[in-house]
Amino acid sequence: MSEAPSPTGGPNDGHRARLRQRLLTDADGLLDHELIEYLLALAIPRRDTKPLAKALLTEFGGIAGLLTADAEAIGRVKGMGETSVAAIKIAQAAALRLLRAEAMAKPVLGNWQALLDYLRADMAHHGNERVRVLHLNTRNMLIRDELMNEGSIDEAPVYVREVIRRAMDLKSAAIILVHNHPTRPTSITLDHAQAH
Q1: Under a CB-based contact definition with an 8 Å cutoff, are residues 44 and 12 in contact?
Q2: Element (H, E) at 40
Q3: Helix, coil or strand: residue 177
Q4: Contact call for residues 56 and 77 (beta carbons, < 8 A)
Q5: Residue whose C-alpha is closest to residue 100's, from 128, 120, 71
Q6: What sections of 44-181 are H helices per DSSP?
Q7: Non-local CB neighbours of 164 within 8 Å, separated by 6+ positions
Q8: What does DSSP say about strands 174-180 and 142-150: parallel, antiparallel, or unpaired?
Q9: CB-based contacts of 149, cutoff 8 Å, min separation 6
Q10: For residue 195, what is the DSSP state?
Q11: pTM score
């Protein structure tokens, strides 16, 4: 892989090149702020993004809180524009797709940890309680993951009639109801219901 040097010849070019090399050879060796710094550098090419990366991680309590934060909240941080907010949100979307693919690759009951990892990544840091329904086929494969409702910080109403109607529409053999606990950011609750 060979790229032309940056046409800007900016003062951060050497630092960014070193970050890029570390990313390509040992991504696990990068600190959280360095990952965010490099991501922001792609969106903001002519500015030192290290202070902004550190400010974002502090504001949102770490990388998980940042990636799962609402785009509007990220945009309120000084120095963040639409392009840099989109860079953060694309990283989250890619991570969720990867986790969802792993969760959908095998029967849910035989791949429980992958499902929990996906759900935690997507739901654990939301400020409002959310209820989702996971629809399974007869082989316990995940066929659909749907947000049923988003409520307040301590409740989200669930309408059983709507859950059952949707399960029947999708011909779900089983469903799993999932909700997060915003007051306990790493906690989610799973309830499993088998159709007969």
Answers
A1: no
A2: helix 32-43
A3: strand
A4: yes
A5: 120
A6: 50-60, 63-68, 71-75, 82-104, 112-123, 160-169
A7: none
A8: unpaired
A9: 130, 131, 156, 157, 158, 159
A10: -
A11: 0.61
Tell me the C-alpha distance between 70 and 25, whole Å.
Answer: 32
Using a 10 angstrom Cβ sphere, with 0-12 exposed, 13-18 middle and 19 or more buried, the burial of residue 26 is: exposed
Compare 40 and 192 and report the one with higher pLDDT: 40
In whole angstroms, what separates CA 95 from the centre of its chain? 6
Angle at 129 between CA 126 and CA 134, to 5 degrees: 95
Cα 51 to Cα 39: distance, rounded to the nearest angstrom:
13
Band (pLDDT 50/70/90 cuts) for residue 3 is: very low
Quote the CA–CA distance of 29 and 36 in Å, as a whole number: 14
Strands 188-194 and 142-150, bridge-based pairing: unpaired
Tokens at 160, concatenated: 């059983």
Tokens representing residue 186 in the block: 């790493």
149, two tokens: 């409702």
More confident position, 141 or 4: 141
Q: What is the CA radius of gyration of the chain?
A: 20
* Residue 196 Cα distances to 33, 101, 110, 147, angstroms: 50, 28, 21, 23
Answer for the pair 68, 124: CB distance below 8 angstroms, yes or no: yes
